[in-house]
Write a sequence for this structure.
């Protein structure tokens, strides 16, 4: 036997030991990487309560194959620098089987190289940036970072379908804010509208902080639209809705998460009514199996269940299902998650069935809420 | 569509004009670009809303109270920030004006918070919200007519004050030659204070009209409005009151037509391009007189 063969045997033995050892680990830890302090701490709090509830349920039912699950918290302040610092310490802890996080896309992107290099499966419940999909695979093309929240541009795609199929609209006027968010959303909407034969009768832009939209709206009104897509945020969106009504455009309005703020109703007044907007999760419109959980969550935390907590709950649930099926092995957990790639194999959580495409992004419908009689409520028809 | 765009532009332009007269009057009297004027406009809106929500005053009374408060603010602004610098180089006063603008904006941020607030709709008389005219493509609200009426009558009143009263004569005298005016027995500081009060009251009305019309007010609203109104004043000929009115209307209509017919993202660009074009051919503005520099 020559030296190279010897080395191969030793390497193989080491590899065997390494891959096999986590299976005998006495602990199963799920890491939560989120802003637990600082200005974005309320987001971190949402993630924490979602994962906490899931883990408590698992442990109350006897843990995973008899092993209790622990949560390891890592505070990264939604700051890319901090995220890049906590990622290596997460990877070093051999008991950690997966990461629920990060919350902010920028922090997620900063931590991603570490996870990909060291082979750590991650599910982000909230990071919506489109570029994450291109940076989450290792050299062999294996995806390590998944997410169970839709992408920024998905909302545009979804809204085109919702407007046509559920609202029955035919001629859409598009009003967008001139920045990455507004343009990205608008482009996704317009592209999909073309594909499904929905007429876009006009596209007009505005800059952030503008207050007068009447010239653009007058122009859009000329196209005789029966729906107005507002691709921007609530401050300007409310004024657009109000001014559209003043100009006699009493059409349904719709937009994405940027409109989702109570100030939209305060500033828009009566004109805010009849506005539809996408949200990742809506307690009032959640599937049957979620109602028990929602009740429990609201009793425990004394607040309404938000979409971040719901997604975090499901993300932790996916890790638990993975560990129960393949053991506490990071590579096998990754393979398990990557194999959830079709509606038939979907993980059914409280936010609906979740499955991933080849890039680790979910194929999940958005929920729709609307403004009715001066308050938010679930839209009567969801696309589920 | 053209008619509607003209109505849109006229509404906007008359509001610009109301702010612009404040710039131009102060400039006419003490040759100072009062950059804090946009903040007076913002304060007008906030005072009015505060009088309505905290004190419970009716709409029109609150407007008058806000005008009085803003007049006092204008006078205070002059006494605190500009009067000590009357003899200093003009640049010093200009920088102070920018400083006061930043100070007032941040003061408002601390007092009222950074979020946009709606105008209390219950206080606004119901008939203002009704449509006055819906004719084919044209839609006009009573509020827009109210804005036209208020702006035009205020500017007419201002015209009377400047041209038909003693204090107006004193203002005009001051704008021609401060020393000579003082020698004729005019109380220079009083006239300057009066000018600030008058300009600030008009700015306050503009702020209130805007916040009712758009149903929103926020502490940084004075900045863009101030810059636009300044451009309107320069366009019309800084120092000339009728010029400020014409400049405001031209700018507002140019903006609406620019957004409607050129490109919505270039609306400000079109407005400023019109201003630059006018300045190139008439450096003193549409109605400004060319002044031979005394220095």
């Amino acid at each position: 036997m020559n030296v190279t063969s010897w080395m191969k045997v030793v390497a193989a033995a080491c590899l065997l030991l390494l891959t096999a050892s986590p299976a005998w680990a006495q602990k199963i830890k799920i890491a939560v990487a989120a802003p637990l302090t600082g200005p974005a701490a309320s987001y971190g709090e949402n993630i924490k309560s979602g994962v906490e509830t899931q883990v408590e349920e698992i442990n109350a039912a006897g843990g995973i194959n008899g092993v209790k699950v622990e949560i390891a918290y890592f505070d990264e302040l939604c700051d890319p620098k901090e995220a890049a610092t906590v990622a290596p310490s997460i990877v070093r802890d051999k008991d950690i089987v997966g990461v629920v996080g990060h919350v902010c896309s920028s922090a997620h992107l900063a931590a991603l190289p570490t996870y990909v290099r060291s082979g750590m499966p991650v599910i982000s419940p909230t990071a919506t940036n489109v570029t994450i999909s291109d940076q989450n695979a290792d050299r062999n093309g294996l995806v390590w970072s998944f997410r169970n929240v839709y992408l920024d541009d998905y909302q545009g795609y979804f809204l085109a379908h919702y407007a046509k199929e559920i609202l029955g609209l035919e001629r859409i006027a598009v009003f967008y804010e001139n920045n990455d968010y507004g343009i990205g959303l608008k482009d996704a909407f317009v592209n999909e509208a073309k594909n499904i034969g929905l007429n876009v009768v006009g596209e007009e832009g505005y800059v952030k902080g503008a207050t007068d939209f009447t010239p653009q709206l007058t122009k859009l009104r000329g196209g005789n639209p029966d729906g107005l897509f507002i691709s921007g945020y609530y401050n300007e969106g409310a004024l657009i809705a109000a001014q559209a009504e003043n100009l006699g455009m009493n059409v349904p309005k719709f937009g994405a998460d940027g409109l989702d703020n109570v100030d939209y109703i305060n500033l828009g007044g009566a004109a805010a009514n009849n506005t539809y907007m996408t949200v990742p999760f809506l307690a009032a419109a959640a599937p049957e199996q979620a109602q028990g959980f929602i009740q429990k969550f609201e009793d425990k935390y004394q607040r309404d269940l938000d979409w971040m907590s719901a997604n975090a709950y499901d993300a932790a649930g996916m890790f638990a299902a993975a560990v129960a099926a393949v053991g506490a092995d990071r590579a096998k957990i990754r393979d398990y998650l990557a194999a959830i790639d079709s509606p038939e194999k979907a993980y059914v959580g409280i936010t609906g069935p979740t499955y991933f495409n080849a890039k680790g992004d979910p194929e999940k419908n958005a929920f729709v809420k609307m403004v009715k009689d001066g308050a938010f409520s679930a839209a009567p028809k969801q696309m589920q | 569509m053209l008619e509607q765009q003209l109505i849109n532009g006229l509404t906007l332009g008359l509001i610009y004009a109301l702010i612009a007269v404040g710039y131009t009057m102060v400039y006419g009297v003490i040759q100072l670009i009062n950059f804090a004027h946009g903040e007076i406009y913002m304060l007008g809106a906030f005072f009015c809303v505060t009088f309505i929500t905290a004190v419970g005053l009716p709409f029109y009374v609150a407007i008058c109270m806000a005008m009085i408060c803003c007049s006092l603010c204008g006078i205070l602004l002059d006494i605190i920030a500009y009067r000590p610098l009357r003899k200093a180089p003009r640049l010093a006063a200009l920088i102070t004006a920018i400083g006061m603008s930043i100070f007032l904006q941040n003061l408002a941020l601390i007092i009222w918070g950074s979020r946009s607030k709606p105008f209390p709709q219950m206080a606004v008389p119901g008939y203002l919200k009704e449509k006055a005219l819906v004719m084919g493509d044209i839609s006009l609200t009573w509020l827009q007519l109210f804005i036209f009426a208020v702006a035009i009558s205020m500017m007419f009143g201002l015209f009377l004050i400047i041209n038909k009263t003693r204090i107006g004569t004193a203002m005009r005298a001051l704008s021609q030659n401060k020393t000579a005016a003082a020698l004729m027995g005019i109380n220079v500081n009083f006239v300057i204070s009066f000018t600030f009060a008058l300009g600030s009251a008009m700015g306050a009305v503009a702020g209130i009209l805007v916040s009712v019309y758009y149903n929103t007010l926020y502490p940084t609203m004075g900045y863009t409005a101030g810059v636009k109104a300044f451009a309107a004043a320069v366009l019309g000929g800084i120092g000339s009151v009728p010029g400020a009115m014409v400049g405001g209307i031209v700018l507002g209509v140019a903006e609406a037509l620019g957004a409607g017919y050129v490109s919505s993202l270039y609306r400000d660009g079109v407005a400023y391009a019109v201003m630059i074009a006018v300045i190139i051919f008439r450096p003193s503005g549409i109605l400004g007189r060319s002044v031979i520099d005394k220095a």
Notes: Chain B has one domain: 2-281. The two ends of chain B are 50 Å apart (CA to CA).
